Amino acid sequence: MPERTQTVRTLRRRAPGLVLIAAAGLYSVVPLLSMVSAALAPQGTFPSGLSWPSDPHWHNFVDAWSIANITTLLKSSTLIVLGVVPVAVLIATMAAYAIAVLEIPLGRVFYTILVLTLTLPYEIVIVPLYEQTKAMGLLGTQWALILPLIGMNMPFAVFWMRAHFIGVPKELSEAAGIDGAGPWRALFHIHLPLARPAIASLALLMFLSTWNQFLLALVLIDDPDKRTMAGALQAFTTKYSTDQVLLNAGALLIMAPTILVFLFLQRHFVKALLQGSVKG
Amino acid sequence: MPSTRPTREGTAARGRRRLWARRWAGWLFALPALAFYGIFNFYPVLLSIQYSFYDWDGIGASTWVGLKNYTEVFTDSEQFSSLLHAFYLILFFTVLPVTLALITASVLRQLQGRFTGALARTLLFLPQIIPGAAAGVAWTWMYSANGVVNQTLRAVGLGSLARAWLADFDWALTAVGFIGTWLSTGLCTMLLLAGIGKIDNSLYEAARIDGAGPIRQFLAVTLPGLRNEIGVCVTITIIAALASFDVVYLATQGGPGTQTMVPGVAVYNLAFSDSRLGAASALAVVLALIVIAVVAPLQRLFREK
Lengths: 280, 305
Known about the structure:
The complex is a heterodimer.
Chain A: H1 2-39, H2 59-67, H3 70-100, H4 107-116, H5 123-135, H6 143-166, H7 170-178, H8 183-194, H9 196-211, H10 215-220, H11 229-239, H12 244-264, H13 266-279
Helix pairs in contact in A: 1-12, 2-12, 3-6, 3-9, 6-9, 7-8, 9-13, 11-12
Chain B: H1 4-25, H2 27-51, E1 54-55, E2 63-64, H3 68-75, H4 77-110, H5 118-129, H6 132-143, H7 148-155, H8 172-196, H9 201-209, H10 214-225, H11 227-242, H12 246-251, H13 263-272, H14 277-303
Antiparallel strand pairs in B: 1-2
Family (chain B): Belongs to the binding-protein-dependent transport system permease family.
Pfam families (chain B): BPD_transp_1
Keywords (chain B): Cell membrane, Membrane, Sugar transport, Transmembrane, Transmembrane helix, Transport
């Protein structure tokens, strides 16, 4: 008996919080549920906001898959991510190592400049990047997105990895030096294994921002099929703005990959996002 | 033995020189990053500043016009109002989410167990995971004539208020703002929840012993304890508000009229529809300066102990 009153009391005490968090969760998911409900309506009808269709047309997703060119887009986005993330993570890690551990001359100056440009909006680079990639003959190809994104990622990535290297005890590098390991061997055999969690979080954050990149993709690549999935969404919505059913089905397919990756790597994502914001 | 001294000094000098050379050799590690950053980030910023003093359509010759593009930013009603809209959006991208997150975090803290549940956590993070462009599509649908917002209004008997929100001259910008609220609230809530869990419980006990009620406890313990996390939320959401592009571009493209025009969309239109690269660059430079002017003092405010 007293045990039950205890549970009831705990429940009552927790109720406002639970209601609050449930409301917040619901608020986050309603727009997406509304899209699902529209995507399942018969094609050519005008569905209303949120309703479970009595006869869900799952086939709409198959149609939207081919109409929105999802296979091509998946390939293109993957190519862009593979072009950006490994290179950017590697060279940012090397630079942060040089700044924080090797203490290269003028490294501080370089670091300060990086941090100063950390908060600059993408708007300030799009016009010059368009002209630069045009002059390089890359405009319209995936390189026009890959190379600038590596550059644009440097401030945050170096900042992130430096924050990691700063926390590594100095004795470690000194011990490596005494053992006769040069800076390369010290980096690859001693520092990189230790930096694995920091590198993994950085890679996840960079995957997310690259995959979701919109403005640069829109400006630098004309052909929607060569853009990131987010960038292709714009072309798709212009084409199917009147067909709510296909529009929502296609948009859901376009955002599905990040959601799936998020669900699979949830714990890492949450950690990375929380850390990422605090460090930034 | 005087004869040995020069040699020893020579060795020392050589050693110093070798050390110096080795420290410079470390730049080999930083060079690739420097190159990519220099070519595709720093140089474009400088180019933007240079373009902003010229009249240029991207093809023909460019003419030096001094500060003309900058005066236009503040006299052209479309450009100037886009800046005002950006500040208005801060209310919805920053103030509202941080307030909501503070309330949620404090209420959940009083429940002791920092339970949020895996499901709630997943849902709260969803808006942060999907591309902003997709959020634009989702909310275009939410706000449409027969979308969820109007559906809800009709269900609670406020059907007379129903309208096509994103096409409404008076409400479009506010409607866009609430998309921003949706985007930032989850992340801010999770950040503040993580932060409030780190506050030492004895601080609350001490405050309680001093006779502080819930509100005094909130002001005296919670707010100062979350200073850093609030600073982070405010900073990233303000940047998102001022430099917004994806959401607005997909939801309204700045319309109806120029009611939801934001600097990002205006820069894009000036450069790639009107081929006025100088004017676009000037607006982009002003936007960047505004971001720095707003964010830099915030950094100082939230960092100091």
